[in-house]
Structures are given as structure tokens and as C-alpha cells.
Amino acid sequence: MASAETQAKDLGVHGDLFPITEPDILMIIRARLTALGKAGEIDRLNREFRERAVASIKRPTAIQNIQHTREPRQWFFDPTITVTEDITDNEGRLIHGAGTRVNPLEIMNLTQKILFIDGDDKKQVQWALTERTAAGRAKIILVKGAPLDLMETHKVPFYFDQRGLLTSRFQIAQVPARLEQIGNLLSISEVKP
Questions:
Q1: DSSP code for 65
Q2: Is the CB of residue 126 less than 8 Å from the CB of residue 108?
Q3: Which helix (H) or strand (E) segment is 32 a member of?
Q4: Phi, psi for 182 (deg, rounded to 5)
């Protein structure tokens, strides 16, 4: 390759040059934090944050668009998925190839019923406790209410459907609802207690 010959020429200074007068952003932040610390604002903000965190643990945000059962209904949910890419183990052996249909219930059974309730409704709480006793084992999941208070009162675990992931996945719109395995499908029932 041939290299092009270049020549540099000093053209001098054109226009005025000024020093940068922008304040350092880190210095601004440090000054504001110092001022907030002196005024006690940081302690107040930390206290408020802690109170909000504790409140959200004691009573998580209720799941929206879930109502008490007006019209009981039942349907089946097929958890079968189609694998989109090859799944291999740590040694590269093929477990499932792309395009394979897999039903997790063929590999592992759901060992207990799952009950969805409004924890603020005493009838639904009693229904869930009765169902849990009758089933021998059942997981109680709240869509509304205070799980820690219920655990303390009834001495059984209560869970919460965080951000409505389960109710939306299984298309549950009414509670109380019961989810259980029947064959290789999940049976979902929205019932009246």
C-alpha cells in the first residue's frame, strides 16, 4: 500500500479561548448531601424509606382486577411448552432439542393444591384453612391482605402473589380459587366458599 504524504501547517489561533467554568457535578452532589445531612433530611428520608419497606412487607400491594367469585367456573391449563433452542447439560449432552414439546408435569408432579384467596375476607381465609386441612397439604397464596399477620394468627404459612405473576399466568380473575394437578393438566376452579 502506498502512503499518502501529508503536510501539517500551523494556522495559529482563531477566536478567543475561555476556561471551562462549569461546576464539577460531584462537588455539587457532595455539597447538597452535606446540606441535607446538616438539616437532618437524610435521616428523615432513611426513616421514611424504612417505614415504607416494612409496610410493603407486612401488606404487599393488592393484585388489581381480582374480584370475589360471583360466577364459579373451572378450566384446564396445559403447561406444555415448546423448547425454542437446544437445551444441553453441563457436558454438552442434549436434554431437549429445539422444537420439542415438554410438559413439566410429566417429569415432576404438583405435590399440593394451591389456593388463591383475599386475605382480608374472613370467609375466604376460613375456606382456605379448611381446604388445606382436608387436602393434607395446600399452599395458600394471597392476592390481598397481610400474610405475616395471618401466619401469626393461624400458625400456617401464607404467601403472596407478588405483582400478580401467578394469577395472570393462570388467568385467575376471581377468588377463592383452587389449582391442582389432574393427569398432565392443571385444573383451576374459581369457587364460592
A1: T
A2: no
A3: helix 25-39
A4: -130, 110
How far apart CA 147 and CA 120 sit, in angstroms, is 10
> Contact at 8 Å (CB) between 88 and 114?
no
CA-wise closest residue to 185 among 74, 72, 80: 80
State the cell numbers at 66: 381480582
Euclidean distance between CA atoms 66 and 64, whole angstroms: 6
- Reduced to 3 states (helix: H, G, I; strand: E, B; else coil), residue 63 is coil
pLDDT tens-digit readout, 141-170: 999 999 999 999 999 999 999 899 999 999
CA distance 131 to 72: 17
Cell of 81: 411448552
CB burial of residue 28 (10 Å; 0-12, 13-18, 19+): exposed
- Report the C-alpha dihedral over residues 27, 29, 33, 39, rounded to 10 degrees: 90
CA distance 174 to 144: 12
Q: Are strands 81-82 and 101-102 parallel, antiparallel or unpaired?
A: antiparallel
Predicted pLDDT of residue 186: 94
**pTM metric for this prediction:** 0.71
